[in-house]
Automatic annotation (TrEMBL):
It comes from the Eukaryota. Residues 33-314 form the FERM domain. GO terms for molecular function: cytoskeletal protein binding. It comes from Geodia barretti. This is Tyrosine-protein phosphatase non-receptor type 4. InterPro entries: Band_41_domain (IPR019749), Ez/rad/moesin-like (IPR000798), FERM/acyl-CoA-bd_prot_sf (IPR014352), FERM_2 (IPR035963), FERM_central (IPR019748), FERM_CS (IPR019747), FERM_domain (IPR000299), FERM_N (IPR018979).
Amino acid sequence: MLRRTWSIRRPQAYSLTRRVDPGTAMQREKGMIRCQVTLLDDCVFTCDMDKNHQGEILLGEVAKHLDLLEKDYFGLAYTDEGMMKWVEAGKQLKKQFKGSRLLALQFRVKFYVPDPSHLQEELTRYLFFLQIKNDISSGRLPCSFESAALLGSYMVQAELGDYSPRKHQQGYVSELQLFPGQTEDLEEKIAQFHREHSGKTTQEAEFLLLANAKRLEFYGVELFPAKDHHGIDLSLGITTDGIAVFKSRTIITTFLWIDIRKITFKRRRFFIELRPNQDTGEQNAVGFHMDSYDAANSCGKTASTITQFFRTAETNAKGFMKRSKKRFSRTERQVMDESKPLALKRSASVRIKRVPPKRQPRRTIGTNLGVQGGGGASMGGIPRRNRSFNMYDITQKPQVTIRANGYRDMSEEPDDHFDDYPPLSLSQQAITVSDDMTGQFTLAALEEEHYPITHRRVSDLEQGPTDYYDDQVKQEEEIGNVCMDDLASEGLLLIRLEADERGRYGFNVKGGVDQKMPVLVSKVSPQSPAEKSNPPLEEGDQLLYINSKPVSHSRHEEVIS
């Protein structure tokens, strides 16, 4: 439970709720709903709410209980038929939970910030720390062995403090269940890194965990199971960068928000309509088959709320998409601007009571925790969206993939096809929706300068155990010294080309930092070295390195020279 000494904020103008003790058997008045909210420290907050109140009032009650200033980053989640859903802020409770008198909800992070330095208060950073811990321990946030060791060492430093040979004897890390299926080798590596963190405060260790976790590929990704027109199982991941398409454990493409014109759904079909091709003017669209109408609707809502939250201020800057008239929340920029002066006034008086770590019996020699029959530990809490998306083993290295901007079918020949929805051409299929089981979501543009559109993680967490990057340019410069073959093992595709007899490679590129877009392959000439390479270069592929030099922050002229 979190507790603070005082708050300078004014009382809310509206009538709120009557707090009740969870064990009190009081008779609820007609029209009241009892809400049991599990907090990030596993404590339960219980209150009675008027069913006519909107979801934002309930979230405000939880925030008031925690004395949380930056509540806009968080939300209240619940499980409906195996799918995680969010309590809608602007909708009455009685319309979201018809006939319900008791609600079981979870308070959790809804918007994962690209940079933890945007969080103004220590309490907010601590709640993010708890959320990342839960994501890691439940398998929602997989990572490689080295990354797990580094992240685990920050968790141990934050919860146990400096390493002490007297207090921290052999096997002390095994008392903490940090990762699913954690092994003795991993615990030894965590202990090794932990010894190097001596002198770091709890707050510093928590911040370092956030600063490193943000570079993991699945950081803040909301996953939805889907199929392509061949019936191949995929997952759509909604991120701050755009909509990522995963096959098994590998990301095969990302549709960036700056390239998406709108998203729509019709029954169980989910469509992504892209902006016209700059070279040909063709109208492109991609379709996916979701598990249900609710899944398609929920995927669209998630995409819309993320772009609404991370959009720019109320301007009509070039590139903005038509906004929905419905307001979902304040923007992150507004939250930062409004919270900063209040956070400065409150900082001297804030006192946070951190929950001690949960402990388990120490590992005996030769024992592996959480592994039964070779499988990982089961996940608790809210089930993951993607029922067909298996959890990483933390010792498994990511597979090689390519950064492609357009959808690339990387599957083998399918066993069967679906007749109920035809293949959707990337350039010919028009989107028309007209019946009751349809929907359209409009997206707000992200601020290019505030959130540069770059892929998190190039080499996962290559930095040393006591260093971290909080400067993106510095990170790119460091990455430039990494061996390209190492990058391939970390999830990127390395393509080697040899020029033809005229010294040409046979492809054109567009983009650059001066054009405010990533460097993409715009054209590949037939029978050219680029097309004949194995694997071949394709239109829409994003270039991250040329001759071992990073190009993410290069001007267009520098890329082509």
